[in-house]
């Protein structure tokens, strides 16, 4: 399995936002969506504030592939579901969201640390 380089992880981690475009059935990319991204260890995660019913999240279910752009890093990726039973990882993701985006306040951050958003957590895996 491919892994992120140290430089990619650092660059994406420092980026305020990430643009994510999922692939359609025919292989073309959907229009990119801007979202927050967090790093936990050597892994990168995004969450859908609208949970599994969110449009962009549903788009990632088609082929589980897409393209991201953040901080100058461009990468084709595979979308993997974060293990819903791994509460420790989800707690870490919550904490990183709270720390990285704290200036937005609890009401906004609450959207990405809710149970619905936790259920729509995607791990980004580089395709090489």
Automatic annotation (TrEMBL):
One Pfam family name from the record? DUF2255
Q: What is this protein called?
A: DUF2255 family protein
InterPro entries from the entry? Answer: UCP028498 (IPR016888)
Q: Which organism is it from?
A: Nonomuraea zeae
């Amino acid at each position: 399995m491919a892994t992120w380089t140290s430089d990619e992880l650092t660059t994406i981690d420092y980026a305020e936002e990430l643009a994510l475009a999922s692939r359609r059935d025919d292989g073309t990319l959907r229009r990119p969506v801007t979202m927050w991204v967090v790093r936990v260890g050597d892994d990168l995660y995004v969450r859908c504030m609208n949970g599994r019913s969110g449009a962009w999240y549903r788009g990632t279910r088609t082929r589980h592939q897409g393209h991201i752009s953040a901080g100058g890093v461009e990468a084709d990726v595979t979308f993997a579901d974060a293990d819903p039973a791994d509460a420790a990882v989800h707690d870490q993701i919550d904490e990183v969201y709270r720390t990285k985006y704290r200036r937005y306040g609890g009401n906004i951050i609450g959207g990405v640390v809710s149970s619905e958003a936790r259920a729509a957590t995607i791990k980004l895996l580089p395709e090489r």
